[in-house]
Amino acid sequence: MSGETDDQPRQPPIIIGISGSSGAALAIRAIEVLGELGAPMHITYTQACRQVWPDEVGRTLADDLNAWKTRLHARIFNPDDFRAPMSSGSFRTAGMLVIPCSMRTVSAIAHGSSSNLLERAADVVIKERRTLTLVPRETPLSAIHLENLLALARLGVRIVPPMPQFYLRPQSAEEMIDLMARRALAAHGIEQALPDASRWRGDEA
Questions:
Q1: Looking at the domain covering 14-193, what would its CATH class be?
Q2: Most-buried pick from 41, 118, 130, 152 (CB within 10 A)?
Q3: What are the residue ranges spanned by the domains of the chain?
């Protein structure tokens, strides 16, 4: 896990940020779908994410990071690695998806904090006017949470809460997670993540 610089890839990578909010399964599925699509990825995370990951998936975050690095050729960056390419606006990217996104991370991004690499990368994406998509995880939402989300939405940030699409009649928790992860990717502009676009347009209604 290092921030060594390589030649800029022909296809700019999408930045995946994983915060410590509940919802590790969403991050795992989104990354797997991107891997299936052959999308280059730069992945970073928060220290809180590292702490809660084993509680949700039964293995360490390092286990999954190493697997993504090996199988999907993702580049992994420590949260304190401010020399990572994503910390500079001159490094071209396909924007950033934060999945899941805790309210602490929402607050930090909304107020321009850059106390870790995830927050710095989001700040860069906003200032360079690239696509930033957040999948916030919290309930109920306080007025503070809503105000922070509204401030980001007014900047053009895409806010995609992981709400189940019951009209698609998911048959299992795994299918529900898959649908929510794919919807977040589609909101980011990766339409090919959707297996059947007609179902999302409501053509079957």
A1: alpha beta
A2: 118
A3: 14-193
